[in-house]
Amino acid sequence: MKIYLAGPISGKGYAEVVSIYQGKIDLLTSYGYDVLCPMTGKAHLKNEVNFVESGYTYPTSTNHAIFERDNWMISQSDVVLADLSNSGDRVSIGTMMELAWASAYRKHTVVVMQSDNVHRHAFVLESADIVFINLEDAFAYLFHLAKGI
What is the pLDDT of residues 91-149, one digit of tens each? Predict the structure, then answer.
């Protein structure tokens, strides 16, 4: 089963983002998932200390390349995990697009956010099949989903 990982990255550094995703990749891979990650092919950004929303010129990081590749990855996935739990006080437009694509493609969508999260909006709630308030509960669910129990 393929799972796509979504979540805010703007304002964070490369090392932090890769660390966040790698922990999820390691755990979900151990459950049996094939993990699709938006940071794939972006090692050239290793010196970024504060990701911005647009304007990168490297071929795999142009606005168009990111938009198309992430859309394609979601279309290939069975499940989308959108972790909004550490998003701070600004809305992640990229993650909102990913949720919209997941909903349009009828992917099983799991969202993680607290009750006071800035992303708590009718469209986010309706695009999510399941909303958890913490990652631990989401991972427990994803484990059972992968194992069929």
Answer: 999 999 999 999 999 999 999 999 999 999 999 999 999 999 999 999 999 999 999 98
- Give the residue with greater pLDDT, 35 vs 13: 35
Secondary structure of residue 143 in the 3-state scheme = helix
Token pair 């990650």 in the structure block, residue = 37
List all residues 6 or more positions away from 104 whose beta carbon is below 8 Å from its beta carbon.
none
The domain spans of the chain are 2-147
Residues 6 or more apart whose Cβ sits within 8 Å of residue 70:
38, 94, 97, 98, 101
Q: Which numeric CATH code is attached to 2-147? A: 3.40.50.450
CA torsion through residues 81, 15, 96, 104, sign: negative
Residue 137: which residues within 8 A CB-CB, separation 6 or more? none
Q: What DSSP string describes 22-51?
A: HHHHHHHHHHTPEEE-TTTT-GGGTT-SS-
CB 142 within 8 A of CB 132: no
- Distance in angstroms (rounded) separating the CA atoms of residues 149 and 17: 31
* β-strand pairing of 130-132 with 108-112: parallel
